[in-house]
Amino acid sequence: MAKYTLLKQEGTARRGQFETVHGTIQTPAFMNVGTAAAIKGGVSSYDLVDLKCQVELCNTYHLHLRPGDDLIHELGGLYKFMGWRGPILTDSGGFQVFSLAQLRTIKEEGVTFNSHIDGKRIFMGPEQSMQIQSHLASTIAMAFDECIENPATREYTRQSIDRTTRWLVRCQKEMNRLNSLESTINRDQLLFGINQGSTFHDLRIEHMKQIADLGLDGYAIGGLAVGDTAEEMYGVIEAIEPHMPADKIRYLMGVGTPVNIIEAVYRGVDLFDCVMPSRNARHGHLFTWSGIRNILNEKYARDDAPLDDQCGCPCCQRHSRAYLRHLFKAGEILGMRLAVQHNLYFYNTLMEKIREALDAGRFEQFRAQMLPILGRRV
């Protein structure tokens, strides 16, 4: 079993650590997103060690379709397959089923959908999601749920979260069965439940209470940053935070910008993931301690300064803004790789600074200082 320890608290913000079979995660933490067992942009699992990554996130849906979870299981699980030695969280595939798949049909048993790769008809329910994630042998498996699009009607939202709760019970039962099998690679695999409820605070609270009673290893907040505003998201977190078990780790799924992360930590969240740092980097949008830079801008053509003189990443330590801009303009893959390394290093360093501020009892000061800077364009 995992163990979350709350080390310090400042207001609602929490400083803790999460012990797992694959290592201890210092929280708050950001998970670097390696959807198909790789970080997009030419960054390897071995690079992530130097970029201060604690946890890598991989995706059940994508890996099930290609190369296949059976193949990964045969080769020893994700750890041997991709070479990462720290904790891995696998997303259940639920979000991708509802966002990528065409012609999906939702029933109590699960969801039938067309693969976005070749159109093949596939069925996935709670048991199938758990079986795939067990094959992948991740540290943490996410429960299979329905990610509700915002805005949603109250009636549909209630029906959906009731079904998601029933699916969660099935996930828990199946994971217990799988962890008892001798053929299972990681018999200490953990299960996180996901809170849903769109932007209806009372339904969110009701659902959180229901899943908290199941005694899971951690709890996630899902279905945000998918059509709702930042203020609506913060409101949902504030509403359900008092009802989240204080002795379990809390994960806000798919969020977000540096400002979003600081504000969510302020409201009691421990764990984050988002494709934004790597995706934005691949288009030349880079996060710095002065604000957000678009390296494609003409003003950087002759700029021999590092991208960020406060950054210790491989790009900033070795190359100029002018060189990085040139690589992008010339279509060189190296430019993308350096930019992704920078943004991931920035995000992981941001979490490090948040932890240091919480340790020192000055998180409120850090928040007030950084919010006006990190969201601006320079």
From TrEMBL:
<dbReference type="Pfam" id="PF01702">
    <property type="entry name" value="TGT"/>
</dbReference>
<dbReference type="InterPro" id="IPR036511">
    <property type="entry name" value="TGT-like_sf"/>
</dbReference>
<dbReference type="InterPro" id="IPR004803">
    <property type="entry name" value="TGT"/>
</dbReference>
<keyword id="KW-0328">Glycosyltransferase</keyword>
<feature type="active site" description="Proton acceptor">
    <location>
        <position position="91"/>
    </location>
</feature>
<protein>
    <recommendedName>
        <fullName>Queuine tRNA-ribosyltransferase</fullName>
        <ecNumber>2.4.2.29</ecNumber>
    </recommendedName>
</protein>
<feature type="region of interest" description="RNA binding">
    <location>
        <begin position="254"/>
        <end position="260"/>
    </location>
</feature>
<comment type="subunit">
    <text>Homodimer. Within each dimer, one monomer is responsible for RNA recognition and catalysis, while the other monomer binds to the replacement base PreQ1.</text>
</comment>
<keyword id="KW-0808">Transferase</keyword>
<comment type="pathway">
    <text>tRNA modification; tRNA-queuosine biosynthesis.</text>
</comment>
<dbReference type="GO" id="GO:0046872">
    <property type="term" value="F:metal ion binding"/>
</dbReference>
<dbReference type="GO" id="GO:0005829">
    <property type="term" value="C:cytosol"/>
</dbReference>
<keyword id="KW-0819">tRNA processing</keyword>
<feature type="binding site">
    <location>
        <position position="316"/>
    </location>
    <ligand>
        <name>Zn(2+)</name>
    </ligand>
</feature>
<feature type="domain" description="tRNA-guanine(15) transglycosylase-like">
    <location>
        <begin position="13"/>
        <end position="371"/>
    </location>
</feature>
<keyword id="KW-0862">Zinc</keyword>
<feature type="binding site">
    <location>
        <position position="313"/>
    </location>
    <ligand>
        <name>Zn(2+)</name>
    </ligand>
</feature>
<comment type="similarity">
    <text>Belongs to the queuine tRNA-ribosyltransferase family.</text>
</comment>
<feature type="binding site">
    <location>
        <position position="311"/>
    </location>
    <ligand>
        <name>Zn(2+)</name>
    </ligand>
</feature>
<keyword id="KW-0479">Metal-binding</keyword>
<feature type="binding site">
    <location>
        <position position="145"/>
    </location>
    <ligand>
        <name>substrate</name>
    </ligand>
</feature>
<comment type="function">
    <text>Catalyzes the base-exchange of a guanine (G) residue with the queuine precursor 7-aminomethyl-7-deazaguanine (PreQ1) at position 34 (anticodon wobble position) in tRNAs with GU(N) anticodons (tRNA-Asp, -Asn, -His and -Tyr). Catalysis occurs through a double-displacement mechanism. The nucleophile active site attacks the C1' of nucleotide 34 to detach the guanine base from the RNA, forming a covalent enzyme-RNA intermediate. The proton acceptor active site deprotonates the incoming PreQ1, allowing a nucleophilic attack on the C1' of the ribose to form the product.</text>
</comment>
<feature type="binding site">
    <location>
        <begin position="91"/>
        <end position="95"/>
    </location>
    <ligand>
        <name>substrate</name>
    </ligand>
</feature>
<feature type="binding site">
    <location>
        <position position="342"/>
    </location>
    <ligand>
        <name>Zn(2+)</name>
    </ligand>
</feature>
<feature type="binding site">
    <location>
        <position position="223"/>
    </location>
    <ligand>
        <name>substrate</name>
    </ligand>
</feature>
<feature type="active site" description="Nucleophile">
    <location>
        <position position="273"/>
    </location>
</feature>
<dbReference type="InterPro" id="IPR002616">
    <property type="entry name" value="tRNA_ribo_trans-like"/>
</dbReference>
<dbReference type="GO" id="GO:0008479">
    <property type="term" value="F:tRNA-guanosine(34) queuine transglycosylase activity"/>
</dbReference>
<feature type="binding site">
    <location>
        <position position="196"/>
    </location>
    <ligand>
        <name>substrate</name>
    </ligand>
</feature>
<keyword id="KW-0671">Queuosine biosynthesis</keyword>
<dbReference type="GO" id="GO:0008616">
    <property type="term" value="P:tRNA queuosine(34) biosynthetic process"/>
</dbReference>
<dbReference type="InterPro" id="IPR050076">
    <property type="entry name" value="ArchSynthase1/Queuine_TRR"/>
</dbReference>
